[in-house]
Write a structure and sequence with these properties.
Helix 1 links the parallel strand 1 and strand 2. The chain has a five-stranded parallel beta sheet with strand order 2-1-3-4-5, sandwiched between helices. The chain has a single domain, classed as Rossmann fold (3-Layer(aba) Sandwich), CATH 3.40.50. The protein is 42% helix and 19% strand. The mean pLDDT is 96. It is an alpha/beta fold and 118 residues long. The longest helix has 11 residues. The N and C termini lie close together (12 Å).
């Protein structure tokens, strides 16, 4: 079973993603980028999903640090966020984001995106 890390400070979104993905993937959750990095230090994941707007460490800060860590350097990382501006997408791509999914998301499209990159 593929391992997926989901980083998001919104409890309701973590709960929704859990409902959508729990039967297909082994899930780990983190509430901010710092917790996400701590999870990556402990194990490798097949795919990482991350929000952008979070306290303590934003998704873009997390992405930048993730790409410097051996366990996350090449891990496909999808940004799952309400941010839809081209500038934000360009910054995410520059920092190493594999893809971009705008909330609210279609559960089938999320699963398809995970399967496509992993």
């Amino acid at each position: 079973m593929k391992k997926v890390l989901y980083v998001d400070d919104a409890r309701s979104l973590r709960k929704l993603v859990n409902q959508v993905l729990q039967d297909r993937y082994e899930l780990t959750f983190a509430e901010n980028g710092l917790e996400g990095l701590q999870a990556v230090e402990k194990q490798k994941f097949d795919v990482i999903l991350s929000d952008i707007n979070m306290p303590i460490m934003t998704g873009l800060e997390f992405l930048e640090k993730l790409r410097q860590h051996p366990n996350g350097k090449y891990t496909p990382t999808l940004m799952l966020t309400t941010e839809a501006s081209q500038e934000m997408k360009d910054e995410g791509r520059r920092l190493g984001a594999t893809g971009w999914i705008v909330k609210p998301f279609d559960p089938t499209k999320l699963i398809n995106a995970i399967e496509r990159v992993s």
